[in-house]
Amino acid sequence: MASASIVSCSQFSQCRRLLGAVDERQQVAVLRVGSLGVSGGRLERGRSVVAAAKGKKEKGTTSAKDFFAPTLTEAKKVVEVPVEVKTVVEVDRVEVSSDLKWVQSAWRKLVRSLASLPLAIAELAVIAGLSAAGTVITQGERPAWYFENFPDSNPVLGFLSWQWVLGLGLDHVYTSPIYLGLLVMLAGSLMACTSTTQLPIVKVARRWSFLTTAKAFSKLQISDSLPRARLSDLGTMLSGHGYQVFARGGALYAFKGLPGRLAPIGVHAALLLIMAGGTLSAACSLRGTVMVPQGLDFRIGDALGSGFLGPAASVLDSRVQVKKFFIDYRENGSVGQFHSDLSVISPEDFPFSSKTISVNDPMRFGGVTMYQTDWGISAVQLRVDNSEPYNLAMAALQKGDNKLFGTFLPLGDQGSAEGKGISILARDLQTVVFYDQEGNFVGVRRPGSKKAIEVDKVSIVVDDLIGSTGLELKADPGVPVVYAGFGGLMLTTIISYLSHSQVWALQDGAWLVVGGKSNRAKLDFERELNELLDLVPEVKSQEPVESPLPQ
């Protein structure tokens, strides 16, 4: 096994381990060296170039002497550097593959393409358009619903038929491959922009940079020179106004508002968090709807199902009991609010929690959210000819905003072929309408009024209308991620408006040369800096010469 030496150069700030060398004119070059004696060196393009005094040449390799021969004479002309051999290390091979170079080049081109601002804007525009379509077009319905509402004979907007809706996946926009693929592309654009633009800007902003010549100050946004002023006094003033001050020799550098430079990275991170939460919701969320009559219960798992990152088994096995469903009505008889009194019962029949929910006021339990979304009438409770109360089931005759529920009370023999009876209708929980067996209107009664109505010689008392509550259950692990992303987005957007201000100063004899710049609120920055310069005390013992700034 060959070996190589570690050299220490008195005139170089860093020393390199001589593991080998690669000829840039060849695709692959391998160097195996013996003990190297180094006679001189120079700094070329940021690399330490050394000249080898001896080396062993093997078949298929290039000796150190031959490889560095063109450099040896030139290096001696540049400078003779005393060196000291410190350690000896084992070396295997140093190779640079052309395939690796091709992969690196292709990766850089891909990153530059993704970081393109027009591409990111186009991605956002398409995502916004698809999101708008998902908002306008009802999602997740059966194909028959789209056949009815987007017919070929009368397309919506003149072109949007069920073929377009189902063919483009507009019935499930947020889980379609196109939408999710665009989210991945936008995430890639954000990460590429962060790595190629934002991170380098932050690195430059954090770097302490000192100006060492008065001429350099004339290129700044604002520059001035103070006679009979000291650098230390200016540093004290800047520090008192929130600047971080650094000094080296007769030069000073100060800055404040660095979070304003970091905020764009936070904005990108927040957007990535929002998209990650949205993707998580699309892939792992569980949804279900259920219509439950008052007094009955249902198992959460039956309505919701189960899936990856879903609720715990104990939550899915729990039952939800609908203790009561009722509607608040306004004075004009219109509906004010829907309420459902719910109670969650454990598999062991222990009550977990209870809450009366309403529209926009859901109940949350174990990662499951229960929303009030619909209502209905499941039965009417009657007493016929002073009988005991009994429930007569009602069916929905009309759906939508103008709901209508009805049932039929047979008369005579139930097995009769005539099938005559009393029709009972209700549009809400306040009134019940009766029609005789001929279809003629008889009258209206309020539930619980205890006032009988006679229809076809039958006395009927309406004790109650039993409502049904329509609940939507949702378990979405992406919601907390999305909320965190939006919170971070609002915070970082506000922080991004902070100005990043920088001030430089140079003590040039009795004169103090000062300059600065800011990325935002430039007029305010100039006013602030001028006010600070006015506060710098004058040292009267020194006699200033002509200002060092170019006139």
From TrEMBL:
Coiled coil: none annotated. One of its GO terms (biological process) is cytochrome complex assembly. It is a multi-pass membrane protein. It comes from the Eukaryota. GO terms for cellular component: membrane. Residues 119-382, 412-529 form the ResB-like domain. Keywords: Cytochrome c-type biogenesis, Membrane, Transmembrane, Transmembrane helix. Transmembrane segments: none annotated. It is found in: Membrane. This is ResB-like domain-containing protein. It comes from Ceratodon purpureus (Fire moss). It holds the Pfam family ResB.
